């Protein structure tokens, strides 16, 4: 199979895993389950669960152990998008080619759907740890608890939320490159770091390798965000599936705005080369290289 065909097959598999972990619609609060499903099953690249899967396979060859974490991290990522789209934040009406959650279900349910996805993600991971303890698999329970702790930190005030805070607080001000770099590392790269590091932990990688993967993922995540900023001004709504020009509309600080388009493209190239170089140092010689191709395709994507 070609890389693209393999990527499609892997994405379909992840869609099935996500559907299996979403809660069934039931009870008087059923509308929130509907909104959760609408948000999560809206499509997308499924980058973060795929990174967990592929990084886990890099060390163990089997990603079954990672399924709850794949679903959980995609729910965390989705909740952040649902809240990002709200009127108080980016006020976007479309994402992935269809109406955003708050437009369909109302702003109140948009807020609550995001809250529900975040809470349910940790319920899934906590249950996975508890199940291993009940089965007597203490070492695996420790690895899963470590992955959950890592994801919590990277998604919270020292990671994604922290980056969002800095971003929102500085709308309309002129920021330095260093400040924008901090936002990119926390807001975007942190969840990519969480994916690759947790996948490695679940696959049995040692601490030194996990640390090296964190550095690789930081480079990849920052390159991914800069490319996203580039596409916001060079692509079209039909191609991206969401409005373009959001950064200018919301007076956001981006690399493109501060250093220009060509310098931003160079940064994407430099960061991706550094990240892939670090990844190669961690690779098993027998690995098929899909993870490397995946990262390169995402960094240099057109949509």
Number of strands: 2
Helix content: over 70%
Compute the CA-based radius of gyration: 19 Å
Q: Per DSSP, what share of the residues sits in E-state strands of 2 or more residues?
A: under 5%
Enumerate the spans where pLDDT stays under 50 for 5 or more consecutive residues: none
H-E order:
HHHHEEHHHHHHHHHHH
Indicate the mean pLDDT: 91
Spatial gap, N to C terminus: 23 Å
Q: How many separate helices? A: 15
The assigned structural class equals mainly alpha
Major sheet: 2 strands, antiparallel
In which order are the strands of the major sheet placed?
1-2
Task: Provide an overview of this structure.
It is a single chain. By secondary structure, this protein is mainly alpha-helical. The chain has 15 helices and 2 strands. It has helices at 3-21, 30-40, 47-60, 67-84, 101-105, 107-134, 138-155, 160-169, 177-203, 207-234, 237-240, 246-249, 255-259, 261-282, 290-299; strands at 94-95, 98-99. The protein has a two-stranded antiparallel sheet. The longest helix has 28 residues, at 107-134. The radius of gyration is 19 Å and the shape is globular. The two termini are 23 Å apart.
For the structure shown, list the relevant keywords:
303 residues, two-stranded antiparallel ribbon, 1% strand, globular
């Amino acid at each position: 199979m070609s890389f693209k065909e393999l990527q499609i097959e892997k994405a379909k598999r992840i869609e099935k895993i996500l559907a299996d972990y979403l809660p069934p619609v039931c009870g008087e609060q059923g509308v929130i389950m509907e909104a959760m499903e609408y948000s999560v099953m809206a499509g997308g690249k499924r980058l973060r669960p795929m990174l967990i899967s592929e990084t886990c396979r890099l060390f163990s060859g089997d990603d079954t152990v990672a399924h709850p974490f794949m679903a959980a991290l995609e729910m965390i990522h989705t909740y952040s998008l649902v809240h990002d789209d709200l009127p108080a934040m980016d006020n976007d009406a479309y994402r992935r080619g269809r109406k955003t959650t708050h437009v369909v279900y109302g702003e109140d349910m948009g807020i609550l759907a995001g809250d529900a996805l975040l809470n349910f993600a940790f319920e899934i991971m906590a249950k996975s740890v508890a199940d291993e303890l009940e089965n007597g698999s203490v070492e695996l329970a420790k690895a899963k608890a470590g992955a959950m702790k890592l994801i919590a930190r990277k998604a919270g005030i020292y990671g994604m939320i922290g980056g969002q805070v800095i971003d929102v607080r500085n709308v309309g001000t002129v920021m330095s490159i260093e400040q924008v770099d901090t936002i990119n590392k926390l807001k975007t790269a942190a969840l990519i770091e969480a994916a690759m590091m947790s996948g490695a932990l679940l696959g049995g990688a040692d601490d030194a390798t996990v640390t090296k993967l964190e550095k690789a993922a930081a480079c990849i995540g920052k390159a991914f965000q800069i490319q996203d900023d580039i596409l916001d001004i060079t692509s079209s709504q039909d191609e991206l599936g969401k409005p373009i020009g959001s950064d200018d509309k919301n007076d956001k600080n981006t690399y493109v705005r501060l250093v220009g388009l060509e310098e931003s493209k160079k940064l994407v190239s430099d960061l991706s080369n550094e990240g892939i170089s670090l990844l190669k140092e961690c690779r098993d010689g027998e690995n098929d290289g899909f993870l490397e191709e995946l990262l390169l395709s995402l960094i240099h994507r057109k949509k």
